[in-house]
Design goal:
The complex is a heterodimer of chains A (338) and B (437).
Chain A lengths: L1 H40 L6 H21 L10 H29 L4 H23 L12 E3 L1 H8 L7 E2 H23 L1 H11 L1 H6 L4 H27 L5 H16 L4 H19 L3 H7 L18 H15 L11
Antiparallel strand pairs in A: 1-2
Helix pairs in contact in A: 1-6, 1-9, 1-10, 1-11, 1-12, 2-3, 2-4, 2-9, 2-10, 3-4, 3-9, 6-7, 6-9, 7-9, 10-11, 10-13, 11-13
Chain B lengths: L4 H20 L2 H28 L6 H16 L4 H31 L4 H31 L18 H21 L4 H21 L1 H4 L15 H5 L2 H10 L3 H33 L1 H11 L1 H6 L4 H27 L9 H15 L4 H29 L8 H8 L4 H16 L11
Helix pairs in contact in B: 1-2, 1-16, 2-11, 2-14, 2-15, 2-16, 3-6, 3-7, 3-14, 3-15, 4-5, 6-14, 11-12, 15-16, 15-18, 16-18
Chain lengths: 338, 437
């Protein structure tokens, strides 16, 4: 009886909890980028998915170069070594687009929807650039040890029927996300620059009066956004494989995460990321074997006992988005401040 | 409408471009581009009704286009009697159960006089149990239908009516879905509306890809019946042989040109009709009210205008126009391939058309549809020629040269991005700006 319960838990752990934590971290990092732009520049950046893709692409190119010259990190993927380059180039891209494109509209005090259309232009350009440089096909760049814990090792260790596998990419995702989020919160809450950003986001006019330089705040925002985008894009690519077209599809769950948590609120972005990730997995998980373990005897249900087919993952984030917007439009952690 | 010299010149320039393609590449290519230009212009008109008249950012154009494609199947494909016998009635019953659940949920939400928490939970309970009931009824029917000769049919088929009806029905489908979406999402701020519609359009595509019993999913529906003659029938006609000999082109080419011209004539009729109606609407008191709402919602509301109601109306109308264009597109393609609907091509490209053409101006949208579609297609050969020129100094097997040539087609995405950004920056009102009245 207890064994059955443990087996059911291992099953859920393997197919929901472990992937959910990894996917949630990726969404949280993406949503943090969206939320930072929203809090300071006050627009929804549709190009964020492509920025992530761009960061991942640069990282992949550097990874290939490193692999070709025989550099590596042993059990860890080489991409980690290449990631700083990817971050720097992506930051450069963000600063460049701001300088060339967004700054003009800031000076003109354009309405948010103008920014939105401008970001669609950036989205077009970036997606073309990415496909032009690396091509539209799938790219494999993960190397090193594939698993931290293999399903069979877990079975032998615990004697259960169900395995629990943890991929290296999942472990790295979670650790990186924790480190990055800790750094970001330390920066926002403890440093002078971070505080000036929060002040600017909270009340622009008051911040200007107290001598905060808005262009500097905007620049730092783009630096953080670019770095976050490169990290999130690379981690997602490591975990799920890099396909240029998937990143446009990521925009919706990322926006959903940011909005569910309360747009402009970093804590909310993280919580939202996990809410969306776990809802997607829980709703599309086939509970057939779990029910089999938890019911007495050998009875196993006929169907998959799945609430929604896996193909409708996106629908889940959308429904949560709509429900939150209807019931509590300000999100779980309401407020528009950093 | 104002046919100033500049506008006439712009359209004449567009015509010259098409003629250039006709003489330099081939008339078949030119007419194929023209047909897609006409459809794109209708789509752009639809988006312009929503954005230009009312300032609604609809990022779900792709979804409404695909619903038009669905209408093309449902209307034109011959019914599959074996599938209907296997589970047609049960599938309809399942869908009715789903509709009843939604209606019941809304009724409960509106009528229940209990605390907010209790209301949320009760509605959720009804939704989940109703959904379960629908799945219980629907799932066996779906399995039965999809088991009927899956390689050939495996879906219910349609009504076997002439495909032209689907243009109206496509608009109707899009209008119904737009009404439901508008009811939920139109109260939202502009960027939330954009995100919500973007999400819905993706869900519509997922639905069409996965509900094989209705659409055959990714197995596609090929060989939709045509509203125009087939090339092979034309080639048997004597008058075509005479005509081809008189013009001096092969009979095969002549037949395909005539088919394309037929399509172009049909599309042109639709485009002109929608354009005329849109212009009438824009000039009417209704159009003035829409612009008033767009420019200042609060003031318009204070003047007693029903802002939410008008938004819903214009959202439904614009989406219906997009749905009509979607059905026309499936008719022209002769097939329905759910996997081919990509947001960049079907949502954001149409947006580029409207912005570049001139938002708020119907003539501008039509021109935008023509110009942008033309360059979307021609960017590929132009990009390739450019790359050939750039790489002409390199060794023939240089990897950089091969890479550049292989990926030259993607320059068109970059071109579109650049065009959009440049227009927004230097001519934000577009090629044919809105007329200040």
């Amino acid at each position: 009886m207890l064994i059955d319960l443990l087996n059911a838990l291992a099953l859920i752990g393997n197919f929901v909890v472990v992937p959910g934590i990894a996917y949630g971290s990726q969404l949280a990092l993406g949503a943090l980028g969206v939320t930072m732009v929203y809090a300071v520049l006050r627009f929804s950046n549709f190009a964020h998915g492509e920025t992530m893709s761009f960061g991942a692409m640069v990282t992949i190119l550097v990874t290939w170069a490193l692999q070709a010259h025989g550099f590596g990190l042993g059990p860890l993927p080489t991409a980690l070594l290449a990631l700083p380059v990817g971050m720097i180039v992506t930051i450069g891209l963000c600063l460049g687009t701001d300088r060339l494109i967004y700054r003009y509209y800031r000076e003109k005090k354009a309405v948010p929807v103008t920014y939105l259309i401008v970001s669609v232009g950036v989205l077009f350009f970036l997606s073309g650039l990415i496909r032009f440089i690396i091509g539209p096909k799938d790219q494999v760049f993960a190397d090193g040890e594939r698993f931290i814990m293999k399903a069979r090792a877990f079975k032998e260790m615990t004697g259960l029927d169900q395995g629990l596998a943890i991929k290296t990419s999942q472990g790295i995702t979670v650790i990186t996300a924790v480190v990055i989020v800790a750094l970001l919160f330390w920066f926002l809450n403890r440093t002078r620059t971070g505080k000036s950003m929060r002040a600017y986001s909270d009340n622009e006019d008051l911040a200007l009066l107290s001598g905060i330089n808005p262009e500097r705040v905007v620049m730092i925002t783009w630096i953080i956004t670019g770095a976050l985008a490169a990290i999130a894009g690379t981690l997602y690519g490591l975990d799920k494989g890099y396909k240029p077209f998937t990143y446009l599809g990521l925009v919706l769950p990322i926006f959903a995460s940011a909005i569910v948590g309360g747009v402009g609120n970093p804590l909310g972005a993280i919580a939202g990321g996990f809410v969306i990730a776990f809802s997607e997995l829980l709703v599309t998980f086939a509970y057939k074997r779990v029910v089999g373990y938890l019911t007495p005897g050998d009875w196993v249900p006929d169907g998959l006992v799945q609430l929604l087919s896996t193909d409708y993952k996106l629908a889940v984030s959308f429904f949560i988005l709509v429900i939150v917007l209807l019931i509590k439009p300000t999100g779980i952690f309401s407020g528009k401040t950093l | 409408m104002n046919w100033s010299l500049k506008n006439v010149l712009l359209f004449a320039g567009m015509g010259v471009l098409l003629i250039l393609v006709g003489t330099m590449q081939s008339w078949n290519v030119a007419l194929a581009i023209l047909n897609m230009c006409l459809i794109s212009a209708v789509m752009a008109l639809g988006v312009n009704i929503q954005w230009g008249y009312a300032g609604l950012f609809n990022a779900g154009v792709m979804g409404f286009t695909a619903l038009g494609g669905l209408a093309a199947i449902v209307i034109s494909v011959a019914p599959v009697p074996a599938a209907w016998d296997a589970g047609g009635a049960r599938a309809i019953l399942g869908l009715l159960a789903g509709l009843a659940t939604i209606a019941g949920g809304i009724w409960l939400w509106k009528k229940l006089r209990v605390s907010k928490t209790a209301r949320i939970w009760l509605t959720a309970l009804l939704a989940v149990s109703g959904y379960g009931l629908m799945r219980l009824i629907l799932d066996p029917a779906v399995d039965a239908i999809e088991a009927v000769e899956p390689a050939l049919t495996g879906f219910l088929g349609g009504f076997g009516l002439p495909i032209m009806f689907s243009w109206i029905v496509g608009g109707l489908f899009a209008a119904i879905v737009a009404w439901a979406i508008g009811k939920v999402a139109l109260g939202l701020r502009s960027d939330y509306l954009a995100i919500a519609t973007l999400g819905i359009s993706e869900i519509i595509i997922y639905f069409l890809k996965n509900e094989d019993w209705l659409t055959r999913g990714v197995k596609n529906v090929n060989g939709l019946p045509r509203p125009v003659p087939y090339e092979i029938d034309l080639q048997g006609a004597l008058w075509l042989h005479d005509l081809a000999a008189w013009v001096g082109i092969p009979v095969v080419e002549a037949s395909s040109l005539i088919v394309k011209l037929n399509y172009a004539a049909l599309f042109l009729v639709v485009l002109v009709a929608i354009f005329w109606l849109s212009e009438r609407a824009l000039k009417s008191p209704w159009g003035r009210m829409m612009r008033a709402i767009r420019d200042n919602e609060i003031a318009a509301g204070a003047m007693g205008k029903n802002v939410t109601g008008r938004h819903l109306q214009v959202f439904v109308l614009g989406s219906a126009v997009i749905g009509i264009a979607g059905a026309m597109l499936a008719t022209l393609d002769g097939q329905f391939t759910p996997a081919s609907y990509q947001p960049l091509r079907f949502t954001f490209l149409v947006w580029v058309m409207v912005i570049v053409g001139g938002s708020g101006n119907n003539l501008g949208s039509i021109l935008g549809g023509f110009v942008i579609w033309f360059f979307w297609i021609e960017a590929e050969p132009i990009g390739l020629a450019l790359m050939n020129f750039v790489t002409s100094g390199m060794a023939l097997d240089s990897p950089l040269r091969l890479h550049l040539l292989e990926n030259a087609a993607h320059t068109r995405l970059m071109t579109m991005g650049l065009v959009l950004l440049l227009v927004l920056r230097f001519s934000p009102r577009g090629l044919i700006p809105e007329v200040k009245r």
